[in-house]
């Protein structure tokens, strides 16, 4: 059997079963795949070195080998904080107004991808399958091909792929997309992002897209399809029924003192629509005075990418906005927004989700959004809560029984909150059952098996 080589910007070092510390659903799924295929996970360690040496730190746990390298401060500034998170991230999330185009950023991005290729190439055996992840490493397959590797290579984009009219604003956009043709399989979260890619190929590269998912440009043919990622349903269900989750449930319910809880859990990022969410909740409080003091919003938003100035601005703006809303509506025994800038473990979050009658998941643009799926998985089947979901999240294409809203509209958010509070049990159960079936059946294991089968040559999209 071929080995599976996973390459990503960062590596979640696999942990032995039973060892403390939660890993994310993606890390769990990839670790399982790597164990199955005797694999190797390669990427940046997260550490800084004065001078790049290419020295690899190997670790092995439960049949999975992780291999990490350290990067120079200039690499991190130009490749990670620069091109990846100041150029590609905002552009791919439709925020062309925030994208920064700096020649040094592009140079650093190319240099680090070359360093990844130079370092990992000797570790790849002739029969290995190579699976590269996300926007940090788009040109990596092309770099590996230049070094003579003929292996089957796949790429999965975890974030949206922007429409052609936005992507063409990126200097040298054509070269970036052409580098994607070095892959054998390209995966996107949804049909919408896939269609954006296909449109670009046809319009800008003069390519042809076949109904079976094959994309042709010149003498290159690539299979491109949608493979919507899921959560680790089994692991999250176990977490939701753990003692830690029950304790978190009891803690939140006790502090609610009979009030309805609306929960939001997001990284502190402009793509998550947190300011728009707060304004929509404010509109709800204005329009439904009878609900004041009977409901509160718990917004958990751990800081993200503090080295990028934009994120510090977001934090400052949200601090001020939540303070204004609380100052305007709060009473001596009620605060409308509990705004928390720290992260919580999986068991705590599962308990908080189950204790919350409503989840407010309203990103302005999101590749998928697994918080929506976690909320569904955590609910009490006898008395489930209501998911309010942005129609611009990839998850909206699967979770059609959520209350779908335009996150830019304060009125739609307000109306959805009121509708959720009034929704009868029978309707809540019906909606939840349909979403739960999707979350359970199309989990992260289903996702990675679908992609790996396509990478092996058994091409089939994830829908």
Mind explaining what this structure looks like?
The longest helix is centred in the C-terminal third of the chain and has 21 residues, at 309-329. The protein has 16 helices and 16 strands. The protein has helices at residues 25-36, 73-92, 103-120, 140-146, 164-167, 173-180, 191-204, 233-240, 243-256, 274-287, 309-329, 346-355, 370-378, 410-422, 425-441, 444-455, and strands at residues 4-10, 40-48, 57-61, 64-71, 129-133, 153-156, 185-188, 208-209, 214-217, 220-226, 260-265, 295-300, 337-340, 358-361, 386-390, 403-405. The strands form 2 sheets. The protein has a 10-stranded mixed sheet, with helices on both faces. It has a 6-stranded parallel sheet with strand order 13-12-11-14-15-16, sandwiched between helices. With 463 residues, it is an alpha/beta fold.
What is the CATH architecture descriptor of the largest domain?
A: 3-Layer(aba) Sandwich
Kindly state the percentage of residues in helix: 40-55%
Total tally of structural domains: 2
The profile of the biggest β sheet is: 10 strands, mixed
Class of the largest domain, according to the CATH hierarchy? Alpha Beta
Distance between the termini: 26 Å
Fold-level CATH name of the largest domain: Rossmann fold
- The strands making up the biggest β-sheet line up spatially as 3-4-2-1-5-6-7-10-9-8
Short description:
The chain has 463 residues and is of the alpha/beta class.
């Amino acid at each position: 059997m071929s080995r599976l080589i996973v390459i990503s910007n960062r590596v979640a070092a696999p942990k032995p079963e039973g060892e403390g510390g939660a890993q994310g659903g993606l890390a769990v799924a990839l670790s399982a795949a790597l164990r199955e295929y005797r694999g190797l996970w390669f990427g940046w360690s997260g550490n800084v070195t004065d001078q790049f040496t290419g020295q690899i730190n190997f670790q092995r746990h439960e049949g999975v080998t992780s291999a990490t390298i350290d990067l120079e401060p200039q690499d991190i500034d130009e490749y990670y904080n620069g091109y990846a998170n100041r150029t590609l991230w905002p552009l791919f999330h439709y925020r062309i107004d925030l994208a920064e185009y700096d020649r040094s950023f592009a140079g650093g991005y190319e240099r680090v991808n070359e360093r990844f290729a130079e370092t990992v190439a000797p570790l790849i055996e002739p029969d290995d399958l190579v699976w590269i992840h996300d926007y940090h490493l788009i040109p990596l397959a092309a770099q590996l091909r230049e070094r003579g590797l003929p292996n089957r290579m796949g790429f999965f984009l975890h974030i949206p792929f922007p429409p052609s009219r936005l992507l063409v604003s990126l200097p040298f956009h054509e070269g970036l997309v052409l580098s994607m043709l070095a892959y054998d399989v390209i995966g996107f979260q949804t049909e919408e992002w896939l269609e954006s890619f296909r449109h670009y190929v046809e319009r800008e590269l003069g390519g042809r897209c076949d109904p079976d998912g094959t994309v042709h440009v010149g003498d290159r043919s690539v299979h491109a399809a949608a493979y919507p990622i899921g959560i680790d349903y089994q692991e999250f269900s176990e977490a939701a029924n753990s003692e830690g989750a029950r304790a978190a449930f009891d803690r939140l319910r006790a502090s609610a003192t009979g009030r309805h809880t609306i929960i939001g859990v997001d990284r502190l990022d402009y793509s998550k629509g947190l300011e728009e969410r707060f304004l929509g909740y404010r509109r709800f409080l204005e329009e439904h005075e009878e609900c004041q003091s009977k409901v509160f919003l718990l917004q958990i938003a751990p800081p993200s990418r503090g080295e990028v100035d934009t994120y510090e601005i977001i934090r400052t703006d949200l601090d001020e906005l939540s303070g204004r809303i609380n100052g305007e509506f709060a009473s001596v025994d009620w605060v409308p927004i509990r705004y928390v800038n720290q992260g919580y473990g999986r068991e705590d979050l599962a308990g908080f989700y189950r204790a919350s009658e409503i989840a407010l998941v309203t990103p302005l643009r999101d590749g998928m959004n697994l918080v929506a799926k976690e909320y569904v998985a955590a609910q009490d089947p006898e008395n489930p809560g209501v998911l309010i979901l942005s129609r611009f999240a990839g998850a909206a294409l699967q979770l059609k029984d959520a209350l779908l809203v335009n996150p830019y509209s304060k009125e739609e958010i307000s109306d959805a909150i009121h509708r959720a509070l009034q929704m009868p049990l029978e309707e809540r159960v019906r909606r939840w059952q349909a979403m739960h079936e999707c979350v359970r059946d199309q989990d992260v294991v289903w996702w990675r098996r679908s992609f790996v089968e396509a990478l092996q040559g058994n091409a089939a999209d994830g829908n």
